[in-house]
Each structure stands twice: as C-alpha cells, then as structure tokens.
Specification:
Blueprint (H helix, E strand, L loop, with lengths): L3 E5 L4 H12 L3 E6 L14 E3 L5 H10 L2 E6 L6 H6 L1 H22 L3 E7 L22 H20 L2 E7 L1 E3 L17 H9 L6 E4 L11 E2 L1 E3 H16 L5 E5 L5 E2 H12 L5 E4 L8 E2 L4 H7 L8 H20 L1
Parallel strand pairs: 1-2, 1-4, 2-3, 4-5, 5-6, 6-11, 7-10, 8-13, 9-14
Antiparallel strand pairs: 9-12
Helix pairs in contact: 1-7, 2-4, 4-5, 6-8, 6-10, 8-10
This protein binds nicotinamide-adenine-dinucleotide.
C-alpha cells in the first residue's frame, strides 16, 4: 500500500512542487495549509485540508484519520523584511506553530518529519563554501525562527525518538518543467521573479540592493537551486528516514554562486529584452556571499542537483511567469 504523508504548506511554492514529486514517487499526499500565503490552484496532487498549524487537535485528528506515516513541514512565514517588522508574528507562526505540529505528531504516533530550514541560519558566514558545521548566527527573526525549530527537532529526537531531516535550502528558484505550478509569493521579495515581473511591466522596476559589496562586480552572490531539485531531495530524505537513517541537518545548494548582475544579464538573455531595474543602497542584513558546501546531502541522501543550471532555472521561471500572468489576466 502507498504510504500517506502530510504536507504542511503544500499550497505554497516549494510545497506544491514537492507534492508533485511525492505523488510521482507513489505517496498519497494530504495537504494542510491555511492559505494565508498559498494558493488553491497550487493544490493538485492530493486533497486540501484547510487548517492552521496552531490547531493541534485538528492536526492530530487529520493524521489519525488519514493514517499519516510522515510529515513534510513547509508551512511558515518566509519574508525576511517582514520578520524584522513583526518578529513576534514570525516566532508565533513558525516556532509555536511547529511545536503544535510536533505535539500533534506525538499524540498521533507519527514519528518522521522533513523540515524546511534555510541558509539564513548562518548569518554572515566566515568561510565559503558554507559547511553544515559552520556557526549559526542568524541576522534576522525569520532565520532565527528556523534555527529554533531545528533545535526543537534535535531535542524531540533525543527525548522522544523523533526521526527528522532538516534541509537548509539556499535560494529556491525556477518553476515546474511542465508548467503545472510555480513561484507566486505576495509580496514577492525574491530576485528572479522580481526581475521577470518587472520585465512584464507587472511591477515597478526591480530593486538591486547594493553595488559596493566585496564581490567581483559589487553585487551579492547567492547559490540558486532549482525547486524540482529541492523537491527530489525531500523524496530522498523520506526514503532515508524510512530506511532508519539517523537524524541529520543538510544544506541544499549547488556549491556555485551567481551575482545579482550575472542573474540580470542571464535573465535579459532568456527574456530577449532589457529588464527595468533600479539601483538602491545595501539592504541591512544581506550577507555579500552565500554559497553552500553541497556535498553532504549527496553523501547522506544520494542527492545531486541536476536541473539547477541558470538556463533551466530562468527558462522554467520565465515560462511560468508568462503563463501565470496570462492566467491572471483571464
Ligand atoms: N523560497 C525560498 O527560497 C526558501 C529558502 C529557504 C527556506 N525556505 C522555506 O521553505 C518553506 C516553503 O517556502 P515557500 O517559498 O514555498 O513559501 P510559501 O509562502 O510559498 O509557502 C508557505 C505555505 O505555508 C502556509 N502557511 C504559513 N503559515 C501557516 C500556518 N500557520 N498554518 C498553515 N499553513 C501555513 C502558507 O499559506 C503557504 O502556502 C518555508 O518553510 C520557508 O521558510 C524557502
């Protein structure tokens, strides 16, 4: 019989792509989302159960009634800037919400979880590429909320035998190769969709924050990983936990970084015309350089990003943006 899994935040960007990969791998997917930031249209690979992370009793019932064997936990608030305006909202949603989920899992006897963490836990890294053992000193409330959940998972493992994998994503990017789902955050703060929307005239010129960083062209460098590669890592993480693999925290990145200017030039090539941008001062809390040491996820899970070339990331993101804007126009 196919295993049943619960995907919290499955109506969002990475959760919907992962739901598709899970369904393809033979899992029965149940999506739990309060639709505060997600979309009904992104729920295509399993039933939507509308609910909030804080509703522990509902979560317990959902897990028991659907004989859930494992949880993939994407649900969170994710905007760094917003987290510095209302940190209390971020800690309540991301930390208290995750505790509620873990309490429900324990009550329902569900002992496996794959957790969406972030490269934001590292703050300004001392050494590039960033190893998982690097110091964790988040620069913002969002990153700290994720680090807190990592710590909770650790102690749930020690004290209650919880099996978990925490995946620290670098910059998730790109869209589903079949155009069935894609990135749609509001407000959109991520560079690639921001450039593509500016190119379509769907928003103001895309801001470029800082051109005086200690990098070759003065703009920030990030490690972009295709969302379908991320989705595949989750399926492998689940298989690993099912085999009884021990708990781990792993980077998901490519080990290669691109500057903002390099992304802009590559995006203009894919789109075929210049993208309106506006140069702005540095944004507080942006580290100049974030690139993953990407080998450990390969050793532990047998995962390797195969779709994360810049061409593929931008090509799939652009196809999605064009199609999505057309849908939104009706
Ligand atoms: N997008 C990235 O580049 C990136 C990078 C690192 C880590 N992450 C992590 O990956 C996960 C998914 O990110 P995403 O880009 O898909 O975000 P998203 O906003 O598209 O999806 C998050 C989903 O969680 C739901 N949600 C939020 N709070 C909830 C609550 N209390 N109860 C129920 N549902 C709730 C939202 O409605 C949304 O559908 C997040 O945990 C995020 O921190 C994302």
């Amino acid at each position: 019989m196919s295993p049943n899994v619960l995907v919290t935040g499955g109506a969002g960007y990475i959760g919907s792509h992962t739901s598709k990969e899970l369904a393809r791998a033979g899992y029965n997917v149940f999506i739990y989302d309060n639709l505060s930031r997600g979309h009904r249209w992104a729920v295509r690979w399993g039933p939507l159960i509308e609910g909030d992370l804080h509703d522990t009793e509902r979560l317990r019932r959902v897990m028991e009634e659907n004989r859930i064997e494992a949880v993939l936990h994407f649900a969170a608030l994710i905007a760094v800037g917003e987290s510095m305006q209302t940190p209390e909202v971020y800690f309540h949603n991301n930390v208290v919400g995750s505790l509620s989920l873990l309490n429900a899992m324990r009550a329902a006897g569900v002992g496996k979880i794959v957790f969406s963490s972030t490269a934001g836990v590292y703050g300004i890294p001392e050494i590039i590429p960033i190893e998982e053992s690097s110091p964790t000193v988040p620069l913002n409330a969002y990153g700290d909320s994720k680090l807190m959940v990592e710590k909770i998972l650790h102690w749930e493992g020690v004290c209650h035998g919880l099996q978990y994998i925490a995946l620290r994503y670098f910059n998730a990017a790109g869209g589903d190769p079949d155009g069935e789902t894609g990135e749609d955050h509001y407000p959109e703060t991520h560079l690639i969709p921001c450039l593509l929307q500016a190119a379509q005239g769907a928003r103001d010129p895309c801001p470029i924050f800082g051109d005086d960083y200690p990098t070759p062209d003065g703009t920030c460098i990030r490690d972009y990983v295709h969302v379908t590669d991320l989705a595949e890592a989750h399926v492998k993480a689940l298989h690993y936990l099912e085999r009884g693999g021990s708990n781990a925290t792993l980077n998901l990145g490519t080990g290669h970084g691109y500057s903002v200017k390099e992304i802009l030039i590559a995006a203009e090539k894919v789109i075929g015309h210049p993208v309106p941008v506006v140069q702005q001062p540095r944004r507080p809390g942006d580290p100049p350089l974030l690139v993953a040491a990407a080998g450990r996820a390969g050793e532990v899970l047998g995962w390797k990003p195969t779709r994360s070339s810049l061409d593929n990331i931008l090509g799939t993101a652009w196809r999605w943006q064009e199609q999505h804007a057309a849908l939104a126009r009706g």
